[in-house]
Amino acid sequence: MLVFLSPVTERNRVVRAFFDGLAGRYRPVLREEAGVNAAAEYLAGGIPVIVHVSGETGFFRAGLTDEETARVVEEVRSGLTRVAAAGGRIVWSVGVPSPENTKPEAVAELRRVLAAKADVVLLPPGGYRLEDVHPKLRRDPARGRTGLWPADAAALGAVYDAVAADLATLRADYADDLAAIPAPDLPPPADPAPLFVDWPNTAKTGRNWGDKLNPVLAALLSGRPVVNGKGTLRSDDAPAIRMIGSSLGSIRPRSVVYGTGYIDTADKTPVPRAVAAVRGPLSRAKALAAGLDVPDVYGDMALLLPLFYRPAIEPTFDVGVIQHFRDAEGEPLPPVPAGLKVKVIDILGSITGVVDDILSCREIVSSSLHGLIAAHAYGRPATWLKWGNRPMGDDFKFRDYFASVGWDDAEPFRVTAATTAADFLGPKLTTRPLVDVAKLIAACPFADDARKRALLDCAAREFPAIPPVSFLAPRAEGLRRAG
After folding, report:
1. pLDDT in the model for residue 51
2. What is the C-alpha R_g of the chain?
3. Hey, which end of the chain has fewer CB within 10 Å, N or C?
4. Is the bond leading into 7 cis (omega within 30 degrees of zero)?
5. E strand or H helix at 321
6. What φ, ψ does residue 388 adopt, rounded to 5°?
7. DSSP state of 418
8. Which residues pair with 146 in a beta bridge?
9. Domains and CATH numbers, the chain
10. Whole-structure pTM value
């Protein structure tokens, strides 16, 4: 089990030395203050961890400004709150008061937080009392176990054993979506270590279908637990995968690009660790112009979902309408003429629920890029809608994706006050995707060779190619370049 030791101080390094005597049962991870939030990301990935705060004064290095100090306090407070809420365990080795402590108010605030969150409080030897640390501990003696600083490996192991024994069975935040997809018959991973993947997990964006597909699809492809790398430190050396989304303009030095693209023509191009595939030809051209080494391997990874989930659902609706979640907050849907069966599909729905809804429709119209991609992956005609400019970017991501499926001069259907749902029907254009399923699987940077071979065999049987892509043919009165 991982133990996040925080902050990085000489006292913490002494504690770390005890781990050699723990027979590999616990593995120390040294972190600065942001490490508490990193621990929370492991817990969100369903991986049990212990956070051991050893010496709270160590969070405040000499020379911190008041603003920096407040930021450290908030970072640790939010991280400890997330750890406790996610079912992790917190051990607190109380720091020895020091005359060199120049941030007494900040230390007192951290002690208040730790007194409320810690499962075990370990006091320094020498007669320190709980009430000397924080009044809450004296008033609430049942709040966590107490003891002294561990003096050797055996004492430290006993503390960790006590809290690990009652660690709740953790479920990853994405567990429900993953459980709804039948487990693939693939060999176990050669390396079962957690896989770092960067994806947005804010309150709204984290519920967006394409964004929350990241950990699910990464887990299916790799067979490994997935941890959001966005909460880990920039100094971490482990690669962090960038898959589904439009984050090529915000990659980090540790990023390995596998299917993402730019969101805007003006995006900058930071240098990643490696590029295995990009979403489309426009992203590749832009990255090549910036000097990156980019293979001609294209595809939004959501196109691979049918490898794992292919329900047999017959369409019962004429049209499915998907709004980008920002459009859904303020753009009214067009009126529906009598006799036309229309289904409104929530792009914030579950992974399989959105797919099922799409398959229940004969065709799809969508202002969400991943509404289009999901429909095309499952062979449903899907047309790009545009209400206004609520989704971020200048439409680069849409044109990049459509270029990857054979439409180089993609145009949106601009929804106006005169539009009705009947306008979404009409003759279709059909193109042949450039995306090569086998090439995309072979380029996967985190699946081992045996698993790739099994995935390629599965693709050859079940999903050898992305279906031809169909969408509403351009019409002078409706389909035109927006803006």
Report:
1. 93
2. 26
3. C
4. yes
5. strand 317-322
6. -145, -135
7. T
8. 121
9. 2-164 (3.40.50), 177-302 (no CATH), 310-438+460-472 (no CATH)
10. 0.84
